[in-house]
Structure formats: structure tokens, C-alpha cells
């Protein structure tokens, strides 16, 4: 598979830092797993995104928000119950 196909399977991840800054990137599952492992270790880490390589100091990461892929627009048809 090429890079374009790989990123088509990527999901949106928001990386939040101490101080409130947030970076939104698209990552493949393997890149997300690697990032999560590195956040536990700390230090600098290069993340490969669809836009290029992002060098992060993961010691300042406060949260990772991972898009569920369930996009809901409008009203729900489910009945309360």
C-alpha cells in the first residue's frame, strides 16, 4: 500500500498539551499505538502524519482525543426508553 492509501485509513486524533494548545492530526492505527506508548515514556517523538513529520515533546501531552468515526448530524430517530 502507498502512503496515500495508508492515510485514507487514518483517523483524526487531537493531541492536547499542558497550557491548552491542541494539534489535530490524522494517524494510522500503528502510528497511534506508537504515540500512546511514547506518551508513557516521555521525551521527544516524531509522528508521521499526512502532512509530514511532527516532532512532539510528549512529556507535555495532557490528552489524546481519538475520533470514534461515528459522525452524527441532525436528530436521532431512536425512541427514549
Q: Can you give me a brief rundown of this structure?
A:
The protein is built from two helices and five strands; from the N terminus they run αββαβββ.
Overall description:
This protein has 81 residues and is of the alpha+beta class. The chain has one domain (3-66): SH3 type barrels (Roll). Helices cover 23% and strands 38% of the residues. It has two helices and five strands. The chain has a three-stranded antiparallel beta sheet. A hairpin with a 2-residue loop joins β3 and β4 (52-57). The longest helix is centred in the middle third of the chain and has 13 residues, at 29-41. The protein starts with a helix and ends in a 15-residue tail after the last strand.
User: How can the largest sheet be summarized?
Assistant: 3 strands, antiparallel
Question: What oligomeric state is this?
Answer: single chain
Q: What's the CATH class, please?
A: Mainly Beta
**Topology order in helix (H) and strand (E) letters:** HEEHEEE
> In which range does the helix fraction lie?
10-25%
C-alpha termini separation: 46 Å
Separate helix tally? 2
Rg, Å, rounded: 15 Å
Low-confidence runs: none
Output the keywords:
two-stranded antiparallel sheet, 2 helices, alpha+beta, 3-stranded antiparallel β-sheet, 81 residues, SH3 type barrels
What are the SSEs and their pairings?
Layout: H1 3-8, E1 11-17, E2 22-27, H2 29-41, E3 44-49, E4 52-57, E5 61-66
Antiparallel strand pairs: 1-2, 1-5, 3-4
Amino acid at each position: 500500500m502507498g502512503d496515500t492509501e495508508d492515510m485514507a485509513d487514518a483517523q483524526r486524533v487531537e493531541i492536547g498539551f499542558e497550557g491548552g494548545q491542541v494539534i489535530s492530526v490524522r494517524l494510522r492505527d500503528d502510528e497511534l499505538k506508537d504515540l500512546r506508548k511514547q506518551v508513557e515514556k516521555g521525551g521527544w517523538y516524531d509522528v508521521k502524519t499526512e502532512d509530514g513529520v511532527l516532532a512532539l515533546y510528549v512529556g507535555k501531552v495532557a490528552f489524546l482525543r481519538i475520533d470514534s468515526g461515528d459522525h452524527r448530524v441532525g436528530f436521532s430517530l431512536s425512541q427514549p426508553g
